[in-house]
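User: Teach me something about this protein's shape.
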Amino acid sequence: MMAGLVSQQADLLVKDQFGNYIVQHLIGLTHPEVEAYQEALLTRVLIPKFNTLARHKFGSNVIEKCLKAGGAARRQMMEQLLYVNTGNNSAHVPSLFPGPLSLRVYWLLRYYHIDVR
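Assistant: First, the predicted structure itself:
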């Protein structure tokens, strides 16, 4: 399936001038058979590299699409992955956001009430 190939090559595609559109398209699909690929893409590529991608010219477009197209469940999953358990509830990982984010990504995070302190 094409979604599997895109998911496998996502590391390269998210930072590519034209490849990021392919990843954005995969993220925007609503077919049940691609959900596993979308979740793998999130947990394997997007969340671990959020800091880098949110500042990247083309990668920030993918992060933006992920936040917009995912719905509440995906945004909640992203928020949980961006936080760590410190014993006294969840605390934000400040090292994820050293320096300026893409302004679009910053405001989307704020819009969806994801703490970016």
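Now, about its shape. The first strand starts at residue 83 and ends at 85. The helical segments are 2-8, 10-13, 19-28, 35-46, 50-53, 59-69, 71-81, 103-111. If you'd like, I can walk through any region in more detail.
User: That's plenty for now, thanks!
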